Amino acid sequence: MHVMKTVAQFMGDKNYDVFLIPPSRFENYGQADALICYDLDKKTFASLGDCNFAPLLALDCYINDSLFFQINTNLERLKAAAEKKFNGKSYQYVMLDTANTEKKEFTNNTFDSVLYVDKPSDLEKVSIENLLISNEILLDFIPDKYNVCYEPDITADKLELLYKAYEQAAERIHIENHNLCI
Question: What is the pTM of this model?
Fold first, then answer.
C-alpha cells in the first residue's frame, strides 16, 4: 500500500486523480485514462485487461507482453549497490512476497539468495548477516544486528518513468520499448 500511496501522491502532484482499487474488483473502468497495476500476477493482469479498454501499465510486475508498458526495478542496479557495500561478501535480498511468478523467477536468477517476506515472522528465516533491502516498509522490521544495504525500488526517476509511460499509453503514442527498468 505504501508504494501505491506514493504513486497516488506523485500523480496527484501532476494534477491527475488516482483511485486505489483492489485487484479483486474486475470491472470496467471506462472513465479511467489508464490503469496502473502494481505487483499483479499475469493472470490477474490479463483478467483486468479483458474488462477494460483503457491502457494498462504494469508497475513492479513482469507481464512480458509488448502490448503493455511494464516499469520494473533494475535488479542489476540493486545488485551492484549490494556488492559495493558488502565488498563481495555474501548477502541475502529480502523483499516483499509477490504472486508474480515471472518476477520471482527473474529475481531468483539475479541473486544468489532471496527471502520473500509475507509477514514479519518470515524475517526469522534470514540466513546471512548482510541484507539487501529495496522496499522501505521492510526497514522497520529488520533487527539492528544485520548489516543493511538499502537501495530503494521506488525512486523519483522511476515515478517519472511511470508518468512518461502513462502519458504515452493514454495518448496511444507508439514506442518500441515497453519494458522499462530503472
Answer: 0.89
